Amino acid sequence: MNKFFIILLVLFLSSPNSFSEGHEESGIAHSESVKIAVVDFQRVLMESSLGKDYIKGAKKNIEKKQALLAKLEDQVRAMRDKFNEQKLVLDEKVRDQKAEELSYKMKELQRKSEDFQAEVKIADGKFQRDILSVLMKEVKSVAEQLGYDIVISKASPGLMYVSESMDITSKVLDRMNR
Fold it and tell me: In the 8-state DSSP scheme, what is residue 1?
């Protein structure tokens, strides 16, 4: 759907007989061609110094957390193996207590693993919002400097910049409010 919209937009804007034909009030000069550019957001994430720094820090944090989880997982595994070896000879009360301890440790491992995954998602989302904010400012600056009217992201989030000269919102509002 997003690609269809972009193709339709490009065809509409590049067609000399577009919807705005004969209407100088549209804000788009007919003799000019519309300049469209594309930005690869994933490439910016991977190749920018901001993106590289984040990835390096995130990787370090993830490795640290994974080491802690692996240590806890080893403890749970050792506890489970020891319990399985001894459960037949243990007193019922002691066996139930050890089973409860093992169950608690397994739930703790699961909870910590889920917390870790949530932390990673939150940090990644915050980083993407932060870098997108910086990226949008830079895209606008480059687009204005090079004379682009529209900048579209290669993937998502889609439309990244539109020249003010192409915005007909105020004219549409004027007509609607008559």
Answer: -
